[in-house]
Amino acid sequence: MVPSRLHAVGLRGWHLHIGSFAAIWLCIGLWMRAKTVDQDERGNAERRALFVGLWPPSLWLVGDALERYELRRRGRLPWRR
Is 70 exceeded by the pLDDT of residue 80? Predict the structure, then answer.
């Protein structure tokens, strides 16, 4: 249900895979920036980096589900396993 709606909106699996890699780099960037702020703000900056670090697996798995949906629509993957 969700993959079909995402596909109807125009998202493709590779869009979410690229978003997953972008979230990894954003997490690294936020973590490096957290090391440059003063001690009072460091905890909040590190929590922000950890929060963004949770996005890549979710984006990757949704991208995989969307790719499977695309393959099923083209008839290259059976509907049931």
Answer: no
